[in-house]
Amino acid sequence: MTIHSKRHWGDILVPVNAQSQGGVLIPEILFQTVQKMIPKINRVLNAMIPDVNIKFKELGRELNKKGEKMVRGELISLRGDQKIPIRYESEGIKKIICILPIFIGAFSDPSMTIAVDELDAGIFEYLLGEILRVFQDYGKGQLLFTSHNMRPLELLNQQFIIFTTINPENRYIQIKRIKRSNNLRDVYYRDIQLGGEKETLYQETSRNALAFALEEAEEDG
Length: 221
Fold this sequence. Notes:
The chain has six helices and ten strands, in the order βββαβββαβαβαββαα.
């Protein structure tokens, strides 16, 4: 999780996948910034996933090799009376927690642009759609993201959507000749099956070849 701090001119990295039960170290000077950001994250997190909160649990204080004061702790999720280290949460929950601090910043800051690779990874399709719809309708900053999920095609303005092709010399294109009444998701599937674009969008999988390969693999076993 990366917390953007204007006060300290930079970002504060709080790992969500730390494997050690000893937690992570954060400079004491930045600890209060993290603590102030947590309630903001929880407010938005609750709107997305009811009854889920996070907390940075302090485990102790110490000096690092440079003699700087550090706070040792770990992120935990709270579900009622249950307390679960974030590292044991689902990938979807961790994904949301990781992007929320910068998402909150970009939502209200027109000068801020964020880029998220595979935004849809682990996130429920309907929730993904609601997040994108809210950002498109009310967000002031700019959100760039990649996604394998088709839900964005049904929600976002088509002029903001770029498709990948299998041509390394012309990797990114926009689908043309789209009417307002067209469902971009349906158009995309049609172009995969029937063509229609100058570039091939997807190297189509042969169902027969796949079935044959599975049968052969079973026989080889």
